[in-house]
Amino acid sequence: TSFGQKISVDTLFIPRTEKFSNIQNEKLKFPVIKTGNLQVDKAINTDLKNRFTNNEYPDLSTDSTLLKWSDGIIYLDFELTYIKNGLISLNISAEGCGAYCTAWTDYFTYNYITGQFLTIDQIIDTTGNFKNVVIADKDKQYEQQKKELKEMWLDKNAELDEDTYKWALEQYENCEKEFKLESFALHSDHLEIIEKCYLPNAIKNLTPTIELKYKYFDIKEDLKIKN
């Protein structure tokens, strides 16, 4: 995918391991950023693959790393959400299977002029009003999700027993308490704060839906970037 003359994003295709060769989905896909500056490209792509693979093979190239790391991975793909004003924001989703299958998504934003990985506090002031708004929104949505969970338990047609209800409720409360203003994605007209609440596989269907999206216009007083 190309965005003007300055930056393009190629797809690195990784073959599946033999034990998952029967899965009919497309090959595993991983992004490769190309800015036209080899030094910046190396900085971004090395950092991206190391962050995503938790520095498992820090000295190997991206393709060599992913070939080793992807054992047990049945799905790998990425999405670009923002390329503008020297910034690129993307997310990478994966699903890995061992005794159980686990799916997750990680989010990354880089300055494609300098090659620097950006944290949330470099995008917006997280010490004052914005942080308070996000936490208030998060708390309000968790209260609604807990209310809906209880209604499901009380609904005799929903087939949610008391033990499962209490288990899910405990997970909700843990996620709410452990929330960090950390993971984010830039979009064309808004900033999204990512709340990761991964429930155990047995109750994955009860995962709460928490959406924290803020239009740039509404948070312009706290923004540290052009949009």
What's the quick description here?
The protein has helices at 38-52, 62-69, 129-154, 162-178, and strands spanning 2-3, 7-14, 28-34, 73-84, 87-97, 101-111, 184-186, 190-193, 212-215. The chain is α+β, with helices and mostly antiparallel strands and 227 residues long.
Walkthrough of the structure:
With 227 residues, this protein is of the alpha+beta class. 29% of the residues lie in helices and 27% in strands. The strands form 3 sheets. The protein has a 3-stranded antiparallel sheet. Strands 4-5-6 form a 3-stranded antiparallel sheet, with helices on one face. Helix 3 packs antiparallel against helix 4 (162-178). The mean pLDDT is 92.
What are the SSEs and their pairings?
Layout lengths: L1 E2 L3 E8 L13 E7 L3 H15 L9 H8 L3 E12 L2 E11 L3 E11 L17 H26 L7 H17 L5 E3 L3 E4 L18 E4 L12
Antiparallel strand pairs: 1-2, 2-3, 4-5, 5-6, 7-8, 8-9
Helix pairs in contact: 3-4
Low-confidence segments, given as residue ranges, are none
- Strand count, sense and closure of the main sheet? 3 strands, antiparallel
Query: What's the N-to-C terminus distance?
Result: 21 Å
Write down the secondary-structure element order. EEEHHEEEHHEEE
Q: Tell me roughly what share of residues is in helical segments.
A: 25-40%
Give, in spatial order, the strands making up the sheet with the most strands: 1-2-3
Judging from the principal axes of the Cα atoms, what is the shape? Answer: flat
| Overall pLDDT metric | 92
Number of strands: 9
* Tally of helical runs: 4
What is the percentage of strand-forming residues?
Answer: 25-35%
Structural class: alpha+beta
How big is the Rg?
20 Å
